[in-house]
């Protein structure tokens, strides 16, 4: 009898949450029945056949009619043979986000379920005891361009970078809910979409209760908090998880400087690795307050409790300049800036910023110390980033390793390799 009561309560609770999700989906526009027939320029057609997930507006030779956001676009060759299909986005220079190529297939629930299953299988090796936060769906790289799904323990955060997904969420979200069984699903919207769309707001809880406290999760055994409603990205920078682990391995008995520290990911890993002192620099008081709380969450670990952690609210360039002028140096220096190249025209200024950071970083790195430099600008390739760093300080450091995203952020096309990091050792003074 007791078992039945528990089962009935759980079933009723799940049904109520399902109803909540169903109500959230009612305001969304339906998927248009009429497909947009598209023909491309010869170079664009070759790129699509080779697996590139984007079709730019200026590469479209003809369309059957003006499509709306989320209309299904079918790409044909000159002989009207099927090449690929994707989601139409009339407000983006990337006019079509491709979801399938090869042979024709229905865009139904079974199609989306195959995408979700493949992504789940790929991430199966993640240790769910030591790490309870990871990326479940990585946009184009999982065949779902412009859609991100991150897990923080029992909370899912869905982030959309294109309004083309809205008509399809009525089919996709129930599948996501059934597969992951989350306590809640939170919506985040990229700035290009706006704060609201179709009555949905950034930070809207689509399923489950509104969190009244930060969401707690483990990453490689360390306890973090995430503000999934207002925090940057989806609440935490999951892509740097493996690189934070590398810094942890460098930190024993060292002094560490973490520039663009944000919520203190690299800082906390360094402390857990045995750093004696860590200085976290960021211009956001809100982020550094969270960094201090992340340290407090882990004071049960002797290394973290013993580490002298200091925060400094300051501009990174100004702080590094002042530290260099004061001849302050550190055994390990980590510089992980935000994206400097949002547009193609931004690339020269971004490269100049990387050169300047590399030179300043070198000045505050002790002789024989470790310097870690990162870039998350997708428009700056790994080769160009390394060339820029080597041009700025190449003779002064020995590059020991170059790295990319954590394993739950797969790369399936060139622009998908947005994150790159360089680990180097400063030459010892003679």
Structure description:
The chain folds into three domains: 36-101, PUA domain (Archaeosine Trna-guanine Transglycosylase, Chain: A, domain 4), CATH 2.30.130.10; 108-216, RNA methyltransferase domain (HRMD) like (Transcription Regulator spoIIAA); 237-426, Vaccinia Virus protein VP39 (Rossmann fold, 3-Layer(aba) Sandwich), CATH 3.40.50.150. Mean pLDDT is 92; it is low at 1-18. It has helices at residues 2-25, 42-49, 109-122, 169-180, 241-250, 265-272, 285-296, 302-306, 316-325, 347-363, 382-393, and strands at residues 36-40, 54-56, 60-63, 72-76, 82-88, 94-101, 133-138, 147-152, 155-160, 184-189, 196-197, 200-201, 205-207, 215-219, 222-226, 255-259, 277-282, 308-313, 330-335, 365-375, 397-403, 420-426. Helix 5 packs parallel to helix 6 and helix 9 runs parallel beside helix 10. It is of the alpha/beta class and 430 residues long. It has a seven-stranded mixed β-sheet, sandwiched between helices. A hairpin with a 2-residue loop joins strand 14 and strand 15.
Task: Briefly characterize the structure.
The protein has helices at 2-25, 42-49, 109-122, 169-180, 241-250, 265-272, 285-296, 302-306, 316-325, 347-363, 382-393, and strands spanning 36-40, 54-56, 60-63, 72-76, 82-88, 94-101, 133-138, 147-152, 155-160, 184-189, 196-197, 200-201, 205-207, 215-219, 222-226, 255-259, 277-282, 308-313, 330-335, 365-375, 397-403, 420-426. By secondary structure, the protein is an alpha/beta fold. Helix 1 (2-25) runs antiparallel to helix 4 (169-180), helix 3 (109-122) packs across helix 4 (169-180) and helix 9 packs parallel to helix 10.
């Amino acid at each position: 009898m007791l078992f039945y009561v528990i089962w009935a309560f759980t079933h009723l609770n799940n049904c109520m949450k399902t109803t909540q999700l169903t109500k959230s989906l009612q305001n969304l526009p339906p998927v248009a029945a009429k497909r947009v027939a598209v023909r491309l320029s010869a170079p664009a057609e070759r790129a699509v056949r080779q697996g590139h997930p984007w079709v730019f507006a200026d590469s479209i030779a003809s369309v059957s009619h003006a499509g709306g956001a989320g209309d299904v676009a079918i790409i044909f060759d000159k002989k009207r043979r099927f090449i690929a299909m994707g989601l139409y986005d009339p407000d983006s220079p990337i006019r079509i986000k491709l979801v399938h190529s090869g042979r024709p297939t229905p865009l139904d629930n079974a199609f989306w379920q195959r995408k979700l299953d493949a992504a789940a299988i790929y991430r199966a090796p993640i240790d769910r005891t030591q790490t309870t936060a990871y990326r479940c769906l990585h946009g184009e790289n999982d065949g779902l361009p412009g859609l991100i799904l991150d897990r923080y323990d029992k909370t899912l955060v869905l982030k959309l970078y294109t309004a083309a997904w809205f008509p399809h969420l009525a089919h996709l979200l129930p599948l996501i809910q059934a597969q992951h069984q989350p306590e809640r699903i939170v919506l985040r919207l990229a700035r290009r979409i706006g704060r609201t769309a179709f009555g949905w707001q950034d930070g809207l809880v689509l399923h489950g209760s509104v969190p009244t406290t930060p969401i707690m999760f483990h990453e490689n055994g360390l306890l973090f908090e995430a503000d999934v409603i207002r925090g940057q990205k989806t609440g935490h920078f999951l892509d740097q998880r493996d690189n934070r682990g590398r810094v942890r391995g460098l930190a024993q008995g060292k002094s560490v400087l973490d520039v663009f520290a944000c919520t203190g990911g690299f800082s906390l890993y360094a402390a857990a690795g045995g750093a004696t002192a860590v200085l976290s620099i960021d211009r956001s008081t809100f982020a550094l307050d969270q960094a201090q709380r992340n340290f407090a969450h882990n004071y049960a670990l002797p290394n973290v409790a013993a580490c002298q952690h200091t925060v400094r609210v300051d501009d990174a360039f100004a702080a590094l300049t002042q530290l260099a002028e004061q001849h302050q140096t550190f055994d390990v220096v980590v510089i992980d800036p935000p994206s400097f190249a949002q547009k193609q025209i931004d690339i020269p200024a971004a490269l100049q910023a990387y050169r300047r950071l590399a030179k300043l970083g070198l000045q505050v790195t002790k002789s024989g110390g470790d310097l870690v430099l990162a870039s998350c600008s997708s428009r700056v390739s790994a080769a160009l980033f390394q060339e820029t760093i080597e041009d700025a300080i190449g003779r002064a450091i020995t590059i020991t390793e170059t790295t990319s995203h954590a394993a739950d952020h797969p790369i399936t096309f060139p622009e998908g390799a947005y994150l790159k990091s360089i680990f180097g050792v400063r030459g010892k003074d003679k």
